[in-house]
Amino acid sequence: MSEIPTGQKTVHVPMVSGGIDSTVAAAVAHEQANKIDFIAYLDTGTGLDENREYVEELADHLGTQLWTLRTHEQYEEMVEEQGFPGPSKHIIMYNRLKERQISKLATVTGDKELVTWTGLRKAESPAREKNTERVADQERWTMVSPIAEWTKEDCKEYIDEHDLPKNDLWNTLGRSGDCFCGAYASPEEKLDLRAAGCEYQAEWIESLEECVTTGDEKEMWGWGALSESERRSVRAEKDDGQITLCSHCDFSPEE
Fold it and tell me: Which of 115, 102, 151 shows the shortest CA–CA distance to 3?
C-alpha cells in the first residue's frame, strides 16, 4: 500500500459533495493529515442550492476555507445539442462537469503535489469493492480514500460521535444534491425533489424537457434507469397529440 504524501510540498484537499461519505472523509482528513489546506466543492451547474449551503456550513465547522470549483460547461447547452445523457454517457458528464475542475486545481497547485481526499467506500458496489484503494496514484494527483473499509453505519456513528453538521437532504431526498445530470436517474426523482421542498429543481428539469427533442420526439431527463417500454410510455404521456390515442400505455416494466 502506498503511503499518504506529506510535507510542505503537498496540498491536501478533501473533495466534498454534500453526501454522508464525503463529509466523514473530510472530517477524517482533518484529523489524520497534518493540515488540510481547504475543502473543495465541484459545482456542476446542476446541483441544489441547499446542498451547496450545507457544504459551506461544513467548512465553517471544520474551520477551513471552501473552494467552489465551478464548471464552465453549460449543461443546458449540452443537452440541447446532444440530448439527455444515459448510462453510457455518464463518464462524459463526469469528465466535463467534475474531473476537468480537479485537473485545473492540480494546475493551480503548481509544483506542489495535490492530494485529494474522497469518501469512496468498497461496500458501495461491486465495482467500488474491486477498484477502491486507500491510496491511489492518479495521473496528476494522489487520491486518498480514508474510509474505504467503512460501512455506512460506521459513517453515521462517526457523524454522531463527532457532532458533525447534517445535511437535511440526507433525510428529505435520500442523498446529496450536487449533480442532476440524470445519467442514472429515473423520472420519478422529480417527485422526490418536490417532496423534499426543491420544486424549483423539478421545474428546471421539466423546462429542459420541453425544449430537448430527438427527431420528432420529446426527450426525457432520467431515462437511463428505464426499460424501452417504460421510455415509450413516458414519451407518450409527454406528447399531447398522443395522449388520447395511447391511453392504455402505463408506466410498467417490460414483460
Answer: 115
How many C-beta atoms surround the C-beta of residue 206 within 10 A?
14
Residue 183 counted as domain residue = no
- How does pLDDT run along the chain (255 residues), one tens digit per residue? 478 888 889 999 999 999 999 999 999 999 887 679 999 999 999 999 999 999 999 999 999 999 999 999 999 999 999 899 999 899 999 999 999 999 999 999 989 999 999 999 999 888 888 889 999 998 899 999 999 999 999 999 999 999 999 999 999 999 999 999 999 999 899 999 999 999 999 999 999 999 887 666 678 899 876 666 655 555 444 444 333 333 233 333 333
Work out how many domains the chain is built from and give that number.
2
Whether residue 168 is found in the same domain as residue 202: no
Instruction: Tell me whether residue 87 is exposed, middle or buried, using C-beta atoms within 10 angstroms of its C-beta: 0 to 12, 13 to 18, 19 or more.
Output: exposed
- Are 134 and 125 in contact by the 8 Å Cβ rule? The answer is no
pTM of the model: 0.85
Are residues 80 and 144 part of one domain?
Answer: yes
Answer yes or no: are the C-beta atoms of 174 and 20 closer than 8 Å: no
Residues 152 and 194 in one domain: no
User: What is the helix (H) or strand (E) element at residue 28, kind and residue range?
Assistant: helix 20-32
Asked if residue 58 and residue 108 are part of one domain, the reply reads: yes
Pairing of strands 142-144, 213-214: unpaired
Owning domain of residue 223 = 189-238
152 touches 19 (CB < 8 A)? no
> Could you tell me if residue 133 is inside a domain?
yes
